[in-house]
Write a structure and sequence with these properties.
alpha+beta; 167 residues; nine-stranded mixed beta sheet; globular; Cytidine Deaminase, domain 2; two-stranded antiparallel ribbon; single chain; binds zinc ion; 3 helices
Length: 167
């Protein structure tokens, strides 16, 4: 699989920026998240963000839905980590884990303290940055807003990234 050069605009992708951090998210990935969010509403759902890092820029190329054993409720989303790991190895062997996503049906477009603590759990010396995509909207998630965050080792707050390019 070829990935667009970091200096060329990635077709069909949205560029998100925060300080030195640049992340491309495929429009098909955003559309799939919106679709899965509506299917599960009014319960929360989520999954993994997968892709590649090219010249320091992350490219989110695929997104997975919840496993059968993931717990979905109005209180939160908890992934099925073992299933997720198997899925990535089997279906997306060329892609890497870049982060997670989840939804807030009828909730705010901000990460809760619980969300941030959970996301921080994925940080490690070998993985000093993780992405998080949050979809928030009405209870039926009919018109959800997508927000992208980067969490960085050593930074107390999650960075909310700004979409820069509508390619
Ligand atoms: Zn949340």
């Amino acid at each position: 699989m070829s990935v667009a050069c970091a200096t060329a605009p990635a077709p069909g992708a949205v560029l998100y920026v925060s300080g030195p951090y640049r992340v491309w998210v495929r429009r098909t990935v955003l559309a799939k998240a919106q679709r899965l969010a509506r299917v599960r509403a009014p319960l929360e759902t989520g999954g993994l963000l997968l892709g590649q890092v090219v010249d320091g820029e992350a490219h989110v190329l695929a997104l997975t839905g919840p496993g059968r054993r993931a717990r979905r409720s109005r209180l939160g989303y908890e992934s099925d980590g073992a299933r997720d790991t198997r899925l990535v190895a089997r279906v997306y062997p060329q892609l890497h884990y870049l982060g997670d996503w989840h939804t807030h049906p009828g909730g705010p477009a901000v990460l809760s303290a619980t969300d941030v603590a959970s996301i921080r759990g994925a940080l490690s010396p070998s993985r000093p940055e993780v992405l998080h995509l949050l979809l928030a909207g009405p209870a039926d998630m009919g018109d959800a807003v997508a927000s992208l965050f980067t969490l960085v080792c050593g930074e107390s707050a999650a960075r909310r990234m700004t979409p820069e390019v509508a390619a």
